[in-house]
Amino acid sequence: MQVHEFYSSLAIRNDNKIVVLLIDGLGGMSHKDYGYKTELEYAKHPNLDRLASQGTTGMLTPVLPGVTPGSGPAHIGLFGLDPISFNIGRGVLEALGIGLVPEPTDVLARGNFCTVDSQGAIVDRRAGRIPTQVCEERLALLRDIRVPRADIELHAVQDHRFVLRLKGADLDGAIANTDPGAVGAKPKRAKALAPRAETTASIVNAFVDQALDRLKGQSGANSLVLRGFSMLPNIPSFCELYSLRSVALAVYPMYKGLARTVGMDTLECGKTFSDQLRTLETHWDNYDYFFIHYKYTDSCGEDGDFLSKVNHIETLDSCIEALVRLDPAVLAVTGDHSTPAALKSHSWHPVPLLLVSSTSRRDGSTAFTETVCARGALGNLESKYLMGLLLAHALRLDKFGA
Amino acid sequence: MQVHEFYSSLAIRNDNKIVVLLIDGLGGMSHKDYGYKTELEYAKHPNLDRLASQGTTGMLTPVLPGVTPGSGPAHIGLFGLDPISFNIGRGVLEALGIGLVPEPTDVLARGNFCTVDSQGAIVDRRAGRIPTQVCEERLALLRDIRVPRADIELHAVQDHRFVLRLKGADLDGAIANTDPGAVGAKPKRAKALAPRAETTASIVNAFVDQALDRLKGQSGANSLVLRGFSMLPNIPSFCELYSLRSVALAVYPMYKGLARTVGMDTLECGKTFSDQLRTLETHWDNYDYFFIHYKYTDSCGEDGDFLSKVNHIETLDSCIEALVRLDPAVLAVTGDHSTPAALKSHSWHPVPLLLVSSTSRRDGSTAFTETVCARGALGNLESKYLMGLLLAHALRLDKFGA
């Protein structure tokens, strides 16, 4: 039995509200230029520290020790699902990122326009990072391509990137990348990785053949490669699993999309954390579970901008009182993964967690930092267990066994 | 391979003795009326604190994070078995609680007398909580009921509660509750949850039909409902698994029964902790593993009586020297689950653990409290791993691999 099925078998209804404040890329790494502190250790956040002293702290390991997650697995884990079993492929994630809502029968792939020479070998894998406008023009050349047994949709993302969506019966996403991953090589034919995907591979190749005909002669962006073929895994919804009316307050489309995969509603909520909190307040009575996604910490980490990440943590801290005033039965503050400025990327480092509830066992934590949380009473848990803790503290899990 | 099978494959014999002192419902929760301390933090227990300083501490998670266990799963985990795989149903537990020793082929259910109106709809689910004596009288009316393919036993428990035991070949416990769980509804027919239980369901219905005939016309307690149909899981014994001659010193029948399910002997041991320790001393040479069950902390937690739980912890602490003097090779002190007075029920909070042995790695713990143990060197373990630690510290586990 998977962990979400076990928790689901114990779930009961009540009126207690759960809020998860997700600070994207929250965890950091000791930075030699800042006294070997992390961003969270360097920042001043008296309000988060006070919450830590009123609750219990711990660490979340997004997937397994040492594993750096993409945004997909990192969120799937926080939503209580095993991120290895419920892997969201790149094609699906790219689609979610532009606001598409894939059907479980669709196959999605991330497409890149590239530039090939007269022999068909790739000379520029990103087609000179053409503007999105040019990407749109190239896609317009391809939109009326028809193939047997599937409908094709093409959606521009940004620069040279687009999403290919195949709609039809009996499609399968087990198809290898056509991107050879190197200049000098030719794009590969789509190849099924399992017999059940043979038909889909032939559909993809029929599309690519016609596309290449139409792109021939264009100056740059005259070919394309596809990768991350995938289908939306069959994910049960929060409402079915836990009888939770749930909503995500996220600014970026991809996080809204990820939340929708587990059956959450999404709401337009402006751009700033204060906007998000105002939306939360307005809709407080309509939901049981609120997922607030704060993006900017991750972006600064990716940029290697230690001090900006510090600033965004401090901004968030200064607004958090409005959230506390709503008095949720359970408030968890954590991240989906670490994004240390020192690494300029996601990382595998565990993520600090604080959990405040009237049912908390206070553990003597006096601050919300990686070092304090690593000694917290919740210990180091795989993210997929957070959901069980949230439900328990909200008294929404029945006793197991007599 | 399950964890008990793996440990079993490494088990070796020697003369080192293991003692587990199980303080039922030991773990607590921060209580706002007592300076946000838990019962264990509030109590004075210098002897347990000294043991902590001589050993290693940690926390046990009974089942999984957030999961509140019943007594069955909580003990099964401490006995080294996965509590989700070896789930003991309510019927079996109820039988163990009155000292029955079910055969693995028996089906057991918890029965309640209830009162129905002339249409057969329930008007009182507990039949006015009739005295146990009346329960006995009603059962006497039903004892000579005969049905094909099974023998029936009926045992009074307390008030309106009784145990139904079916004995026969090819019985199966996959049967839904006949208790509709609400006043105004009629008791349901027994229904098989799997084809293999069809015969058993028809046996149950044949019994109930005759029982209702005989109860008709009684004033109150004129009907019955059944729930928690279950069979004893096929549990290997400590002796087979680990070559351990093991004994439980428990006052309450249910805990003796749980211990017998893993092949432990049980001994009459009086009512108080001092009585239990005297019994231990008398039988010291006859066993390798001693399980001492101290009940009163749990009862006080269930009653919401913080200070009584504190007192019982202090009483236990004051007697513990007699146990230490026996000089077991390994002494573990822990709980089966938490029962915070603030919640008046079992809870999901992890349980403190201390383990003292000449093979301990001292971890600098200076007290036996939730907060100290949460920072202890054993970390936070699922209860099912305790058995491996006990055997290891007693040098009863061979090296794995070359």
Provide structural commentary:
The structure is a homodimer of 402-residue chains. Chain A has 402 residues and is α/β, with parallel strands linked by helices. Helix content of chain A is 32%, strand content 19%. Chain A has 15 helices and 13 strands. Chain A has helices spanning 3-10, 39-42, 46-54, 71-78, 90-97, 132-142, 198-215, 238-242, 253-261, 273-282, 296-302, 306-319, 321-325, 370-373, 386-393; strands spanning 18-23, 56-61, 107-116, 122-124, 151-158, 161-167, 223-230, 246-249, 265-266, 289-294, 330-334, 351-357, 380-382. An eight-stranded mixed sheet of chain A has the order 9-8-10-1-11-12-2-13, with helices on both faces. In chain A, strands 3, 4, 5, 6 and 7 form a five-stranded antiparallel sheet that branches. In chain A, helix 9 (253-261) links the parallel strand 8 (246-249) and strand 9. The longest helix of chain A has 18 residues, at 198-215. Chains A and B meet through helix 1 and helix 15 of A and helix 4, helix 5 and helix 14 of B.
